[in-house]
Amino acid sequence: xxxxxxxxxxxxxxxxxxxxxxxxxxxxxxxxxxxxxxxxxxxxxxxxxxxxxxxxxxxxxxxxxxxxxxxxxxxxxxxxxxxxxxxxxxxxxxxxxxxxxxxxxxxxxxxxxxxxxxxxxxxxxxxxxxxxxxxxxxxxxxxxxxxxxxxxxxxxxxxxxxxxxxxxxxxxxxxxxxxxxxxxxxxxxxxxxxxxxxxxxxxxxxxxxxxxxxxxxxxxxxxxxxxxxxxxxxxxxxxxxxxxxxxxxxxxxxxxxxxxxxxxxxxxxxxxxxxxxxxxxxxxxxxxxxxxxxxxxxxxxxxxxxxxxxxxxxxxxxxxxxxxxxxxxxxxxxxxxxxxxxxxxxxxxxxxxxxxxxxxxxxxxxxxxxxxxxxxxxxxxxxxxxxxxxxxxxxxxxxxxxxxxxxxxxxxxxxxxxxxxxxxxxxxxxxxxxxxxxxxxxxxxxxxxxxxxxxxxxxxxxxxxxxxxxxxxxxxxxx
Length: 479
Hints:
Strand content: 15-25%
Shape: globular
């Protein structure tokens, strides 16, 4: 049998040396104190604050993302995650005492949180900074060495992040690897201790297969068609304003964006009117004003533009009514903020996650119909409920499933470090943010300490005497 040497492995996989450097540092990193981890996180925070303008310029160059959106949806979210970790990481790291069962009298148990080791973070293009740095914060807080693979679709942002990481961390602690699909595939061949992926379900399956080959941990943050259900008691003006914000921020390229809206037939036209008003207020009263708006993003590339535009064209040809928008410009990858009515379940726009600035509105007759429709689809990353009726809210929470849910608002749940963020089924596996992220990148190690009192000795063989009788007596205590 031929044993592959390290030099041969390096020639086979271009990132073998990078991985080995991280793995060589793994145990030193695991032994870092809370004070040392806090120092690293503070240094990261300072570097982010110093590079705000670079991030604004990079994301504008990548897909014309407005500086205000970069600040609120990228920088601010990461700073909040950092501040939460800085405040709590010392407590998170402490071994947690657990109660002792009666039969183990004389022992004491604890759970210790130890880092997974060397972890891979593959991040997406839609929120290229937030969805790279937020899991990085958790991985560093947990004491891991980290390899980051940012998306090639946002190259300017990836370059800023690479410089930032290089200035903050030793390359044996955290490193950024640039490239496309071939580079991602090469990284998946390496035996990382945990794989963290944010993106689509198709690639997510490949990441999960890679993790299975290495018997490693895996976190998948995916997407799906996240429904918004509006009932007869909802404040439609407020509902429309919040739906427009959640749908059209980042030009709809948001994994938790409301993908479609379900509204009682009797309230549809009223909701459509408020949606029109909210879009006009946010982006301009005319199509020309909306196209010229500095506050509206663009599709990230021609492929994304073509896919969403194709769904829109097919839907209109199938009878969907354009309430507002519908105009496009291929040269600038612009798709107007668009609302569609008369949408049927079989309409093209309902075939897949839209991931663009098109909002379909579907009518329903009864809440049973809405629940049935949601259940028939794949499990969504988010569910949005707009209602003033507690019974309706509880019914939708009890009779559906989703990665997360907001009541009378949208997308805000992912900004709270006190809430887990993650999907279920097709929308993902595992979660993070705050302590949930720390635990995602940690192994919970059970430790039992035996004291002088050792009752279990009475259960040792031979079982023909007292040990057998005690075993039967003990088991009856739990009958």
